[in-house]
Amino acid sequence: MTSEVVGVDTGRRSGTRGWPRGAGLLVGAGPAVLGLLPWLVTGLRLPIQNLWATETLPEQMPRALLPFSQYALTLIIAVIVTGAAAAGLCTRAARRRLPRRSVLAVLSGVLVVQLGALVQTAVVVQAGLAGGFESAIYIAVLVAVTVTSVVVGVLTLALIAAGPPAAAVVGMSVGAVALAPWLSRLIVPLATVAPTPSALQLLAAARWVPAVLVGVVIAWAGLRTLRRALAGATGLLLLWVVPALTTAIAASAGTRVLARRPAEMAQFAGQVFSQALTTPALALPPLLVALVVAAVGILGRFLRRRGRDQSVSTSRGSP
Q: When comparing pLDDT for 75 and 97, which is higher?
């Protein structure tokens, strides 16, 4: 926070024009709404619910601001965390122009959007579900997943917006891995029956975006200190573990036959997670891409710095 205030004051002393006090709210709310984009493009119609009180056609389902469904858990996580991470990036990029304590204002803008979407969706879904214990558990799990995602998003935003470079690397890496399901559902929206060949090609390309971003972030911070090196290692760890975790969540929650057998669902999720984590063809390529990108970026920064130092030395030595 101190660095943020110093940055704002420095900008003002150097004549940089500051933004008004309410700008922080917009810097938070705008990216939070953008985070919902993969769901917004579907028209906001709730997916068909297994526990709905009455038989309803897909086009007659009510509209909700979040995709509450056991088949969309990874999308819920993605839209929340990606929106918060984007708000953190905007805050870090504009912190010289933002007023003091702008991180709190940005966070307020994010929470207004995300918690408002949660409340509206929970009310709509609760009103349409059949009564009973299963419906209560269903809505409670969806709310819990969303609240957990909001907490992760808040931490991610804080690390990116106000943390030192090492902390920012961790926050940006979280945002990068959350971007994978976000991009997937933007390219092929939820409930799409048959993706087009071009959409499938884009999906294949989108798989590498988180790895490239993690590599870029590591190169941006460098490895000059132990903290930055540990942060880079954490980014690679997230790139390895989180995709396996989201695969396990999607596979287990999307298996309708296990919906009434939580113990078996958890066991199945553990099996999928372990397999995704330890299959070299799945786990190694993204890590290698991130390492190559990071190495190229760090080498490029070193060569550029070396060339600049040589130019300075030459200019000083010239008559």
A: 75
